[in-house]
Amino acid sequence: MIRIICIVIFSSMTLTVSSQSSDLGNWMMYFGNKKINQNINWHSEVQYRNYNAIGDLEQLLLRTGVGYDLTDNNNNILLGYGYILSQNYIPASDDKVDVEEHRIFQQFITKQNINNRVMLQHRYRFEQRFIEDDFRLRFRYFLGINIPIVESKNLYISAYNEIFLNSTGNVFDRNRLYGGMGYKLNDKFRFELGYMNQFLNNGNRDQLNIITFVNL
């Protein structure tokens, strides 16, 4: 079963890459969540995004925030801040320009457990973006699902779709579609390896995702 799933995932990656004009990039991500007390938690996040599979920095994202559990761990509101450094290529050139962004965001996460096995997660996020001398607003909706593999207590399949909508200009900003496999080491640590296709107004981008989750 595990071997079949791996073949399907990597076959779809190969087909998608070969059928699109986009390059294959690599995102390495860390997500941390630490309990302060019964209701309050601290979120930390680092994302190192590359244009290529190895190297060539596209974006460095640092994000943090304080959350509050409304009901156990299934409903959480959070106020956060993010710093984003983007290195954008100048059209028709091999040179890049640095663009800095400061971001304030509010989000609500709600989780659903189906038959004590399948986990659904909805995330609603509203962002206020300060990009150099520009100010923008954006809304994001994320729907994710984790399905454990029957033969294993630790392996699971992970998938999500996230849509980004702007308040002005082009309403559609982007859409991210992800699929991968995860390994739960214990209640505190889990890891994922997956593939994400990012649909943009001017084309598509493919990324390998290497993700670490830490809950303390």
Return the string of H and E elements: HEEEEEEEEEEE
Helical proportion? Answer: under 10%
Q: Within the largest sheet, what's the order of strands?
A: 1-2-3-4-5-6-7-8-9-10-11
| Major sheet characteristics | 11 strands, mixed, barrel
User: Mind telling me the CATH class?
Assistant: Mainly Beta
Determine the number of helices (DSSP H or I, runs of at least 4 residues): 1
Q: Count up the domains.
A: 1
Give keywords.
mainly beta, Porin, 216 residues, 11-stranded mixed barrel, globular, disordered N terminus, 11 strands
How would you describe the overall organization of this protein?
The structure is a single chain. This protein has 216 residues and is mainly beta. The protein has one domain: Porin (Beta Barrel). 8% of the residues lie in helices and 70% in strands. It has one helix and eleven strands, in the order H-E-E-E-E-E-E-E-E-E-E-E. The chain has one helix at residues 2-18, and strands at residues 24-35, 40-50, 57-71, 75-89, 96-114, 118-131, 134-148, 155-166, 172-184, 189-200, 203-215. An eleven-stranded mixed beta barrel has the order 1-2-3-4-5-6-7-8-9-10-11. The longest helix is centred in the first third of the chain and has 17 residues, at 2-18. It is globular, with a radius of gyration of 18 Å. The two termini are 32 Å apart. The model is unreliable at 1-21 (pLDDT under 50).
